[in-house]
Design goal:
Helix content: 25-40%
Number of domains: 1
Oligomer: single chain
Distance between the termini: 20 Å
Radius of gyration: 20 Å
Largest sheet: 5 strands, mixed
CATH topology: Spore Coat Polysaccharide Biosynthesis Protein SpsA, Chain A
Number of strands: 9
Order of helices and strands: EEHEHEHHHEEEHEHHHHHHEH
Structural class: alpha/beta
Strand content: 5-15%
Strand order of the largest sheet: 4-3-5-8-7
């Protein structure tokens, strides 16, 4: 979720890689009987269903500080966004709440990361500064970062105990059908300990990506500070081979109900590890625009039998539906689905 720009999918006869995320593209040949049989046998194996609450441990100090960070370009936050912010405050009366404006962020960058100040000042869009700021405050203070259009549904305390860093993915319907990619790491909601080496890496590489040029402003954000940049940084940190097209390799740590995709060799609860949770806990809602794309592409899914990833996405969508209600163990809701769908429609159809 968060302010995620979409791009139009184009099926070509080659495989291309954008910021390290493999985007498989296929050539539509005549479908054979063997293709149809394979297509019919595909099962959704993106992640297990959720039958229990978020993994936690008792009797220990929280590994993630009880601090909530939110940001906006100034202190005049629109009323509706203030209501969503209050949902976090109401559910966490004993937590510290820190609000950051762009001016606060620049002061933090100047004081703690002066090498980044020129890059910060050079950003052409506010969202780029918002992205850089969330990475900075999480590195310096740790805690929870949430976009202002994320609504909190229940306390996050149990999620702070077992893992040192928790970073969800986008709903798989977004990454598969809008990006033809097995996963996309989300930067709209993040939980992490202070001084985690992943965010040190992220901050250093913001300077390197600041000169990337793209054809649209939205893609500029995605590739310099946003989810494509963030996914690339995740792949680098976790030691995931960015040139490999074997995107169906399975995870090596099976101690939780996290998604099945490969996330490197480090244990999920390692001090420097990153836990990617099941989307049912944090980021399970499919926006309205993406839902329309899914329905259109899956109407005749046998036409895409040569794209196993798309087939698995169709099976997943058919099994779970696209209009998902908040479940028993869901922490957050997407409070801006209609607005986000409108934004995504404009961006991907440019």
């Amino acid at each position: 979720m968060g302010r995620l720009a979409r791009r139009r999918l184009r099926f070509l006869a080659v495989a291309v890689f954008i910021t390290g995320v493999p985007f498989l593209v296929v050539q539509h040949n005549m479908i054979t009987t063997e293709d149809l049989q394979m297509c019919a046998e595909i099962r959704a194996d993106l992640q297990p269903d959720v039958e229990s609450d978020f993994p936690t441990v008792k009797g220990v100090r929280p590994r993630i500080p009880h601090i909530i960070h939110q940001t906006y370009r100034n202190e005049t936050v629109p009323f509706i966004l203030r209501e969503y912010a209050r949902s976090f405050i109401a559910n966490h009366p004993d937590w510290q709440y820190k609000f950051w404006s762009d001016a606060d962020g620049r002061h933090l960058i100047q004081e703690r990361h002066p090498y980044l100040l020129q890059t910060w000042d050079g950003y052409q869009q506010n969202i780029q500064r918002a992205d850089a700021l969330r990475y900075s405050v999480l590195y310096e203070y740790g805690g929870v970062y949430a976009d202002l259009d994320v609504e909190n549904l229940r306390p996050l305390d149990r999620a702070t105990m077992k893992y040192s860093c928790i970073i969800p993915t986008e709903p798989f319907e977004h990454s598969i059908f809008l990006y033809n990619s097995p996963y996309l790491i989300n930067n709209a909601f993040i939980m992490c300990r202070a001084k985690h080496p992943f965010f040190k890496q992220v901050l250093l590489n913001l300077v390197k990506t600041s000169t990337i040029q793209t054809t649209t402003a939205d893609n500029q954000v995605m590739m310099t500070t946003g989810p494509l940049f963030f996914t690339n940084e995740f792949n680098n940190f976790m030691g995931i081979d960015q040139e490999s097209t074997n995107i169906y390799r399975k995870k090596t740590d099976w101690s939780s109900n996290s998604p099945y995709f490969y996330k490197g060799e480090r244990k999920e609860d390692d001090e420097d590890g990153i836990y990617v949770p099941n989307t049912r806990y944090f980021t399970d809602e499919v926006d309205d625009y993406a839902a329309g794309v899914v329905e259109n592409m899956c109407k005749d899914r046998f036409r895409h039998c040569d794209n196993v990833l798309l087939q698995r996405g169709c099976v997943e969508a058919e099994a779970r539906g696209l209009n998902r209600k908040h479940r028993l163990y869901t922490f957050n809701g997407d409070a801006a689905n209609e607005r986000r769908a409108t934004d995504n429609r404009k961006r991907i159809c440019k």
